[in-house]
From TrEMBL:
GO molecular function ontology, one term from the record: amino acid transmembrane transporter activity
Gene Ontology terms: cellular component: plasma membrane
Membrane-protein topology: Multi-pass membrane protein
InterPro entries the record matches: AA/rel_permease1 (IPR002293), CAT_C (IPR029485)
Protein name: Cationic amino acid transporter C-terminal domain-containing protein
Classification of source organism: Eukaryota, Viridiplantae, Streptophyta, Embryophyta, Tracheophyta
Keyword list, A-Z: Amino-acid transport, Membrane, Transmembrane, Transmembrane helix, Transport
Domain Cationic amino acid transporter C-terminal stretches: 514-563
Subcellular localization: Membrane
Family: Belongs to the amino acid-polyamine-organocation (APC) superfamily. Cationic amino acid transporter (CAT) (TC 2.A.3.3) family.
Main subcellular localisation: membrane
TM helices/strands, residue ranges: 76-98, 110-131, 152-173, 193-217, 229-252, 272-290, 302-328, 348-371, 400-419, 425-448, 460-479, 485-506, 513-535, 541-561
One Pfam family per UniProt: AA_permease_2
Length: 581
């Protein structure tokens, strides 16, 4: 049965949003019955090959996939909304959570770590902006990768996006609980329950984290514009409190606490930068709001690039004052700012900081709920997960089903998992996707199907291989502590030559409205920084990442490859039928 038959037989206006039939979850022919599913499994290899080579198009992402939602999301956001959505999502998602963990280890050099991570995030925001302006859909990085790197690479991104959504929301829920506990008592685990039958890192149960996730996502489901207004009002108020923290921190802090500045050396700085990158995540949520933005070409560059430049400066200043207010070895890893103000005798400020932190994490949860649901919506529009999650509610104009999926899953994870377990997984997924986005931008500029000569394509792929290989090689040298400056110099020289050779090639696409400057240099630098930061993560983060990816790949072989294959070839058949008419 063709995928669209049900919708043709029963118009959208007569169908209830809340429906639960098998056809709503698995409408593809491969899942019509057990026999068809077995037949599909026997064709897994050729179908996987088809998916590996398939690339979507701008038009397909912008027009055709939206039909799966049945109702449209409302264009209600302006540059003002996006600016504060970025601020509300990013500020609070890490500065009040991860800073204490890393500053306790690397001391005042946490400032440099934030600067390095901020530069990498800023480069990534450039790449996101160009894509979001030209492909303003809810899928964000998923759609961009699907268009430029193909269906399979997009699935790898999709699985990590969903991992980000779950882990990021769960981590914020746990941090919210810690800060609330710090306002009541000095014990950050005061509101948690310890059980003995679970492993360390998973044995502190947190019902408060679950509750705050349910409330935040409930607000996000009620309407995009209302959530945006609540966000920018509260974010403006919190910005004044942040200024207060920075000013008082400089006044009451001691420069003597900045000695030693590099207790763990340069290696410690980059290891910390890889983890504090979590503090910058959230700006990509602005890209997912492009479908609901009135003027994407004007509003998205202001919301993304402008806000990230400001946030980087704010983060560096906040990290500096934290290490000035107390010795880095005395920093509380769960509620660093509240405890720091208490230690310098400003107990009343402790509560003000705690409230600001709670507000920051609350808006991060609100904006995260919006963005994560829209990622999930586009992924389900492509049938990589059941299209039931793509449905947009006709009254609220929001993807309620997608929001519920992320909410319930993240609440379960937040109930069991500690913050340090969550942060390493999240950083790897984020850095990996940002690296892929930079690669995709280069592909978009240098390769256009049926336009770029094969000779130019091979030259470009060769240059890209040299750039990536040099970055991986330099990272390996760094982690092995071998080769000294000669190893670093060779890796940097090879990277430079690879990028230079690429710069001499002809570009086959020019941005229509807004483009990343200095291509290929900035995207190439973004690739290098993201790979380097990935290499600075611990081995445990690699194990967790690859285990999660392996599980998701099994799902793709059993479900995703067949669903997306059916959708792609049904679309081709529909196009051929229309052409025949």
């Amino acid at each position: 049965m063709p995928i669209q038959t049900i919708q043709e037989q029963e118009p959208n206006r007569t169908r209830s949003y809340w429906r639960w039939s098998k056809q709503d979850f698995f409408p593809e022919p491969s899942f019509s019955n057990l026999a068809s599913y077995k037949a599909s499994l026997s064709q897994t290899c050729p179908r996987l090959k088809d998916r590996l080579l398939d690339r979507s198009t701008d038009t397909f992402e912008l027009v055709e996939l939206r039909k799966a939602s049945e109702n449209s999301m409302r264009k209600c956001l302006t540059w003002w909304d996006l600016l504060w959505l970025s601020f509300g999502s990013v500020v609070g998602s890490g500065i009040f959570t991860i800073t204490g963990l890393e500053a306790h280890e690397v001391g005042p050099s946490i400032v440099i770590a934030y600067a390095v991570a901020g530069l990498s995030a800023l480069l990534s925001s450039f790449c996101y902006t160009e894509f979001a302006v030209e492909i303003p859909v809810a899928g964000g990085s998923f759609s961009y990768l699907r268009v430029e790197l193909g269906d399979f690479i997009a699935f790898i991104a999709a699985s990590n996006i969903l991992l980000e959504a779950v882990v990021g929301a769960a981590g914020l829920g746990r941090s919210w609980s810690s800060y609330l506990a710090s306002l009541i008592t000095n014990n950050a685990d005061f509101l948690r329950f310890k059980v003995s039958f679970l492993a360390e890192g998973f044995n502190l149960l947190d019902p408060v984290a679950v509750l705050v996730l349910l409330v935040a996502n409930g607000i996000a489901m009620s309407g995009t514009k209302m959530t945006s207004v609540l966000n920018w009002i509260s974010s403006i108020i919190s910005s004044f409190i942040i200024v207060f923290i920075i000013v008082v921190g400089f006044i009451r802090g001691k420069t003597s606490n900045l000695d030693p500045f590099f207790p763990k050396g340069a290696k410690g700085v980059f290891e910390a930068a890889a983890v504090v990158y979590w503090s910058y995540t959230g700006f990509d949520m602005v890209a997912t709001m492009a479908e609901e933005t009135k003027k994407p070409s004007r509003d998205i560059p202001v919301g993304l690039v402008g806000s990230m430049a400001i946030i980087t400066v704010v983060y560096c200043l906040m990290a500096l004052v934290l290490t000035m207010m107390q010795k880095y070895t005395d920093i509380d890893v769960n509620a660093p700012y509240s405890v720091a103000f208490s230690k310098i005798g400003m107990n009343w400020a402790k509560y003000l900081v705690g409230i600001c932190a709670l507000k920051g994490m609350t808006t991060s949860l609100l904006v995260g709920s919006l963005g994560q649901a829209r990622y999930t919506t586009q992924i389900s529009r492509a049938h990589m997960i059941p299209p039931w999650f793509a449905l947009v509610h006709p009254k609220t104009g929001t993807p309620i089903n997608a929001t519920l999926l992320v909410t319930i899953t993240s609440a379960i994870v937040a109930f069991f998992s500690s913050l340090d377990v969550l942060s390493s997984v999240f950083s790897f997924s984020t850095l990996f996707i940002f690296m892929l986005i930079a690669v995709a931008l280069l592909v978009r500029r240098y390769y256009v199907k049926d336009v770029t000569p094969k000779n130019d394509l091979f030259k470009f792929l060769g240059c890209l291989f040299v750039v990536v290989a040099s970055c991986v090689g330099g990272t390996i040298v760094w982690n092995l502590n071998s080769g000294g400056w000669i190893g670093y110099a060779v890796a940097a020289l090879v990277w430079f030559l690879g990028t230079l050779a690429m710069a001499l090639l002809s570009k086959h696409r020019v941005p229509k409205v807004w483009g990343v400057p200095l291509v290929p240099w900035l995207p190439s630098l973004s690739i290098g920084m993201n790979i380097f930061l990935i290499g600075s993560l611990g081995t445990v983060a690699f194990y967790r990442f690859f285990i999660c990816s392996a599980v998701m790949f099994i799902y793709y072989l059993l479900v995703g490859v067949h669903a997306t294959y059916d959708v792609a070839h049904q679309s081709e058949q529909d196009s051929n039928d229309q052409g025949g008419k």
